[in-house]
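> forwarded from #structure-qc
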């Protein structure tokens, strides 16, 4: 009975707390805002910067700029063809300098904390085949107006050479490349429909254009057309089976739809390509396996996520591990991990559920602890 209760709860937990992100998370997931505790004016900061490889050259392909707040992510902007980016921050969220709307950040782990705002956030870049250095936004506390963040440096992922359009230039017609670049420009402005049309033209002209399929899938995800997005990501992988961002896109689709076997398989492929740089996908792999009742696999995955997450940016690892241990009837340890989660994430819907689970685990652990104490007393 306890096991069935936990399974029902984790299904809801996974749907609410999947941290898929940019290149993984999109603007439709958890559409809430950062609350700085100030209900008056909302001062804005205009952030700009440049994305470059370690040797100073441009990063090939599409580059997104992501804000990461305690493990929750949002795409803030896309770098242009020269690697430059810019966007606006205020206590209500993010808006691209060339976008009409605002994309809000999730508040589950940061809402209600007076004056913390963007101090809990980092900025990084994302591009297929590369990993980015991070820039802490704590340094911008108290700033306003224009702030230049300098250069965000990217490095090839371990075991890959990075993905470059130039590697397939001979196969990509000139018009397809033009449509792709126009699609990137529209995406940078937040014009998803216009961008989708350009990327669709690119893949129609050149079905072997992996990056165009990838970007088409991203735009379809933004428009909540998950069926079409899945097909586009698979098409990208048919061209390049080692394209990490396509697996990321598929993982996002599977997570949003609650397709646990697909999520487990997709993250297995991604983590086989790179087991060290994606702690959030070890977490998602654990969520998927938990819902598939593969508890040992789920435990191994969440432990790998915690090992890779040296800065503890995914506090829900503790929560998930607690649920796994509870299913294995180790209620005392389960309660300890849920407490650890609540220490770092005391607010939000997940915290409310965690408090209820903690109460249940403590009740279930009480008889075993009483028995242990009685046994220890009799031995004296």
């Amino acid at each position: 009975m306890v096991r069935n209760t936990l399974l029902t709860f984790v299904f809801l937990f996974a749907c609410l707390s999947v941290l898929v992100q940019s290149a993984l998370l999109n603007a439709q997931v958890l559409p809430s805002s950062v609350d700085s505790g100030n209900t008056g004016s909302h001062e804005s900061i205009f952030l700009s910067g440049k994305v470059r490889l370690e040797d100073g050259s441009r990063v090939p392909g599409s580059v997104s700029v992501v804000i990461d707040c305690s493990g929750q992510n949002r795409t803030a902007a896309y770098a242009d063809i020269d690697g430059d980016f810019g966007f606006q921050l205020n206590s209500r969220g993010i808006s691209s300098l060339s976008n009409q709307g605002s994309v809000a950040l999730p508040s589950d782990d940061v809402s209600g904390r007076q004056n913390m705002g963007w101090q809990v956030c980092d900025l990084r870049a994302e591009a297929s085949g590369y990993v980015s250095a991070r820039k802490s936004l704590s340094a911008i506390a108290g700033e306003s107006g224009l702030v230049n963040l300098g250069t965000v440096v990217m490095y090839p992922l371990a075991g890959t050479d990075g993905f470059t359009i130039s590697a397939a230039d001979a196969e990509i017609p000139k018009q397809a490349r033009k449509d792709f670049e126009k699609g990137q420009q529209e995406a940078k402005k937040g014009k998803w429909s216009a961008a989708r049309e350009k990327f669709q033209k690119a893949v129609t002209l050149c079905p072997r254009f992996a990056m165009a399929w990838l970007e088409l899938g991203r735009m379809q995800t933004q428009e909540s057309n998950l069926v079409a997005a899945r097909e586009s990501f698979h098409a990208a992988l048919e061209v390049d089976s080692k394209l990490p961002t396509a697996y990321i896109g598929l993982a996002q689709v599977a997570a949003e739809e609650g397709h646990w076997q697909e999520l487990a398989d997709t993250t297995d492929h991604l983590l086989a390509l790179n087991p060290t740089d994606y702690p959030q996908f070890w977490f998602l792999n654990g969520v998927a396996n938990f819902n598939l009742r593969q508890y040992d696999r789920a435990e191994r995955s969440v432990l790998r996520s915690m090992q890779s997450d040296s800065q503890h940016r995914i506090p829900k690892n503790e929560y998930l591990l607690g649920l796994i241990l509870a299913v294995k009837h180790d209620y005392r340890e389960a309660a300890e991990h849920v407490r650890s989660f609540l220490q770092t994430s005391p607010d939000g819907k997940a915290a409310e559920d965690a408090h209820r689970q903690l109460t249940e685990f403590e009740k279930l652990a009480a008889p075993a602890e009483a028995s242990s104490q009685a046994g220890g007393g009799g031995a004296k």
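QC bot note: Residues 1-42, 95-116, 159-170 have pLDDT under 50 and may be disordered. The two ends are 37 Å apart (CA to CA).
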